[in-house]
Automatic annotation (TrEMBL), chain A:
SUPFAM superfamilies: POZ domain, Voltage-gated potassium channels. It is found in: Cell membrane; Cell projection, Dendrite. It comes from Furnarius figulus. Its main location: membrane. Residues 1-16 form the signal peptide. Residues 526-563, 620-647 are annotated as: Disordered. Keywords: Cell membrane, Cell projection, Ion channel, Ion transport, Membrane, Metal-binding, Phosphoprotein, Potassium, Potassium channel, Potassium transport, Signal, Transmembrane, Transmembrane helix, Transport, Voltage-gated channel, Zinc. Residues 40-139 form the BTB domain. This is KCND3 protein. It catalyses: K(+)(in) = K(+)(out). PANTHER family: POTASSIUM VOLTAGE-GATED CHANNEL SUBFAMILY D MEMBER 3, VOLTAGE-GATED POTASSIUM CHANNEL. The chain crosses the membrane at residues 182-203, 223-244, 256-277, 322-343, 355-371, 383-404. GO terms for biological process: action potential; potassium ion export across plasma membrane; protein homooligomerization. It is a multi-pass membrane protein.
TrEMBL record, chain B:
Residues 32-67, 68-103, 116-151 form the EF-hand domain. It comes from Furnarius figulus. This is Kv channel-interacting protein 4. One of its GO terms (molecular function) is potassium channel activity. GO terms for biological process: regulation of potassium ion transmembrane transport. Its main location: membrane. Keywords: Calcium, Cell membrane, Cytoplasm, Ion channel, Ion transport, Lipoprotein, Membrane, Metal-binding, Myristate, Peroxisome, Phosphoprotein, Potassium, Potassium channel, Potassium transport, Repeat, Transport, Voltage-gated channel. GO terms for cellular component: peroxisome; voltage-gated potassium channel complex. InterPro entries: EF-hand-dom_pair, EF_Hand_1_Ca_BS, EF_hand_dom, Recoverin. It is found in: Cell membrane; Cytoplasm; Peroxisome. The keyword Manganese does not apply.
Amino acid sequence: MAAGVAAWLPFARAAAIGWMPVANCPMPLAPTEKNKRQDELIILNVSGRRFQTWRTTLERYPDTLLGSTEKEFFFNEDTKEYFFDRDPEVFRCILNFYRTGKLHYPRYECISAYDEELAFYGILPEIIGDCCYEEYKDRKRENAERLMDDNDSENNQEGSMPSLSFRQTMWRAFENPHTSTLALVFYYVTGFFIAVSVITNVVETVPCGTVPGNKELPCGERYAVAFFCLDTACVMIFTVEYLLRLFAAPSRYRFIRSVMSIIDVVAIMPYYIGLVMTNNEDVSGAFVTLRVFRVFRIFKFSRHSQGLRILGYTLKSCASELGFLLFSLTMAIIIFATVMFYAEKGSSASKFTSIPASFWYTIVTMTTLGYGDMVPKTIAGKIFGSICSLSGVLVIALPVPVIVSNFSRIYHQNQRADKRRAQKKARLARIRVAKTGSSNAYLHSKRNGLLNEALELTGSTEEEQHMTKGTSLIESQHHHLLHCLEKTTGLSYLVDDPLLSVRTSTIKNHEFIDEQLFEQNCMESSMQNYPSSRSPSLSSHHGLSTSCCSRRNKKTTHLPNSSVPATRLRSMQELSTIHIQCSEQPSLTTSRSSLNMKSDDGLRPNCKAAQITTAIISIPTPPALTPEGESRPTPGSPTNIPTTTTANIVKVSAL
Amino acid sequence: LVFYFFFQECPSGVVNEETFKEIYSQFFPQGDSTTYAHFLFNAFDTDHNGSVSFEDFVMGLSILLRGTVQEKLNWAFNLYDINKDGYITKEEMLDIMKAIYDMMGKCTYPVLKEDAPRQHVETFFQKMDKNKDGVVTIDEFIESCQKDENIMRSMQLFENVI
């Protein structure tokens, strides 16, 4: 529990007085501070640097090394201090965790060293506070990636997911060529054909040789058949590839809309359109234009290059900056073109025939190209021309760094998007864990209590020590509060009991001292209740009562004589309880053997009874039973047995 | 100590209902403690201005921790009496009871029946309502509580909380 919340615990406990008049059962006793020693200073010697803190500070987190008794292993008798041969720098952070409840991650520390220290002290990294958690996770991921890259060369592509469908394997092969050799082959083949196709397009237009008739023919027309075959082959490959991708795509609709597939389509369409329209002379002009689109095949290379993709994405995301650049350039061009036109208007044979004609000069000058096909001749024109070229340099140089920084930002952003998603998931998981943590702690301690008593009976002391983990005072107070609430309402929290392997209720009073006194009181109060409720309990079925005390009364000797329809489930549970208990801890029943024998004699015809009575008896606190069981005088006659058993039941079920 | 943590948690010097609800939801994570926190807040907020000042808080706590049994019973009566008219009706008690049962949550054994709060209220009224007029006055309440040993004993329970 957080330290801040724990400060409110006294208030909540005080307010619990509000439940008292309403409760039907007496309350469990409050945990006292008997076990707590006078708070003492502990000296922790970490590699020579001494840290001092209060013992209670360390005991705030009993499931860590420093908070539990495990640290006794490091206790040095001579110097009366705990010596740890670890890094003192990191220990500073860890000790601060105990003090403030927040674990911080120092940036200068190496992530793996820090992790090791945390593991040594038994602290989960998830507890790192929000302030440092992102940094921690980032560093951890970087480290993991680096390790992964190192390991990649050793073991990759070893069948990791054999269970993918054929379609999924194909898609994976397309997206990531390194997954299998077949994918790699496919990757290179398509790359080769893209290159071939592009080169074909280029070479087609190169003039190669003359033909009788002194006209230079481009190679495309000279070797028309050869080029046509090459083109056909490439287009076929591309078509097959496109269709395969379409088939393997997990979401066909999304695939069709993606940029790469559009490029693919645009690259191969001209060929088919050309096939269709060869005979039609009217549109052959348009057909020629279409061939231009064949150059788009070169964009298919972007699948093969991550950098190209990022560049394209950068340009897309820098659209606003580019737009601004364009706009400002346009403004400048118009201004300077106008100025130049009017400046050169006077001179004769000037090339600056109109303002749009001056645009060409302005652009060429601003981008410092300077073709020289248009030059100003008047002095005013030259002056403005030089101003134009100087300003051009400035205007163009400004947005370029913006684009560059955008590029690097996007590049890193690409890597961070995945990081963020994973962090979000982990954060939600942490919150869930923290929420269930406190309630789990309560159930955990209850279970411990259950096991404690079970083990106490069997007398196995070493396991007992194992079980009694020191719960802090705050925890025990919190649990006492929850216990009071249970008593007020007569319900109890369900706990999954591994030892008994059945869900049992936990109306028990453990961990607290003076149980006997308490049970005496409880017993007395229930004995008072008993005469009044006797008849209904004997004749009633298993029913629910809001009073925890009288609850067990209802499950009495009525059970053996009836066919127990309604109670079957409950009694079965208890039967299984007792069975398991019997098998695992035979000595558990020895303390009740006296009772067993009594009930056996009386209810011989129905041997279930014995088990049922013991079942009922076994659930509440055993330790109280032992003195009472023995002290009870054994009635000899069978007729008394029912009374005895019911009386026993009453007595025991007081809890 | 109380002063210190009060001001740490509530730097403005007043506690509002939200804080109560938060605190209770941390201590009773399995159930829904907002209703009970609301009633509790009203019990602490003696001047009914929607926020609990440090004075109110300390006053309430001192009654609960160091007051006589009479004062504690008074305080409990004040808590149950939702409209503060001096009488606890069955409806008020039912609201309080439901709020307490809500705090337990769903995972209980035995499973909470629908009329369990109502039955509990009936038991309570049987015990407390001496003249059977359907309401419990402060005197009936104190008298009946003083007769009940359990209640008396449990009042002493949280003496040494702070």
